[in-house]
Amino acid sequence: MRRLISLAVVFLVVTVLLAVPSAVPPAQTQEQMIAITNGRVFDATGASLIDDGVVVIEGTHIVAVGPAGEVAIPAGALTINARGGLIMPGVIDNHVHVTESLITGDVLTAWLRAGVTTLVDTGTVRDGAIVGDVVIVDGIEVLRNFARGVTERPPRLLVAGPILTAPGGYPATRPEPNSQLAAQPVTGPEDARRIVAGLAGRADIIKVAIEAGFDLDYEDAGWPVLDPETLAAIADAAREAGLLSRAHVTQEGELAAALDAGFDVAAHTPIDPLSDEILQRAADAGMIFTSTANIWGGIGDAVPGNLVRYLELGGRFALGTDFPFQVGSQMPVAEMQLLVGGGLTPEQVLVAATRDSAAAVGREHDLGTLEPGKLADVIVVDGDPLSNVADMANVTLVVLEGEIFPQPSALVPVGDANCDFAVSSIDAALILQHGVGLLPDLACVEQADVDASGEVDAVDAALVLQFVAGRLEEL
Q1: Looking at the DSSP assignment, which residues form a beta bridge with residue 130?
Q2: 407, 345, 319, 400: which is closest to 367 by C-alpha?
Q3: Per-residue pLDDT band at 19 (split at 50, 70, 90)
Q4: Per the omega criterion (within 30 degrees of 0), is the bond before 324 cis?
Q5: What is the CATH number of domain 2-88+394-474?
Q6: CATH, domain range 91-367
Q7: Where do the domains of the chain lie?
Q8: Which of these, 112, 85, 61, 110, lies nearest to 367 by C-alpha position?
């Protein structure tokens, strides 16, 4: 008899779901309210950790952050229990290269599911490059089209466009066969202004290569490098276009050339120990370094130490991995561990991966911290990454601009082996998000179904549908 009643509930709620117009997404609407509760809130602003905190989201933006006793949860809000995890901003990987990887498959979705909500691509195919028999008209649009073509929604992708360089200069000097495709030669100051003007409105940042060779510095005879006047023209044109500029540098002299020209960001932290003088000069100029410690092996041992000293002098750094040269499309835990092992604190690393990575792309106004008015990029991490940064691998919930993305580890057992209706709100949220089109697989999540494989019976499905039926009118 119970099974007949349960099947009747399934039929009733399925009928309601099928009556929802197909144009209405199965996820929350723009007005949907979400409250993430029962977690420790790390907002990345520099404020103290909130031990029992709440983050409230309306549509695509955060509307409230604070202690549980001080933040009112709106009536009708979808409440997600963080189960004591750390609630923090989504991670930003500030230095990746994804065009070539996307040709062969989707490398983006894995990042989002891991909790990386924004990627900064720092070198696309240049306009006019020839790939096989195809002339690339717009290299930035090629990358964006690849991103649009992935099966699931990708992380936010911010793009630099091609790497501006001297004719015959880095990265065309790299041994990889396609390295020259990202190298945009610049012949002088006027050419620099013309190229930057052509990238304005298409690129999110402007990137330049300043490298004379792996063991050489700016003044050494080696690979061609742009002269100071051309470098200054690029930085000035980027500023006039409202874009931040970043320079690929690996040595102290290259960093000095970037500072002389007025660049905003160093795409790498130089690999040799830096003098206090150059570090203080960079800090005073407000330059943001990018870490990329994981790509160097033994020759980059000085990177974490340079960053420790840079922070002490008032500087800032963003976290970047330089994918695909080392780290895969995942939470950059290896980079974080290298930095902590070199003397940085987990909190400093997480601030670099959120607030200061947003600043490095000119997006601190809407990304990087948990504050009212900012875009709702929020993750929940199981464990205590502020003590053990390796726990950043344990992301249980991802929210990108207010949209919930399920994680296998988020589908935690709910102790409902007897189907006693003890279904958690996070389970309901994930099921609501993916219900339409997956109706045969709807289920309460039990020990045997932590991956939401759908291997459950009609009783399970009925109980969950019954639990969420009151929210169907919001779809």
Answers
A1: 135
A2: 400
A3: very low
A4: yes
A5: 2.30.40.10
A6: 3.20.20.140
A7: 2-88+394-474, 91-367
A8: 61
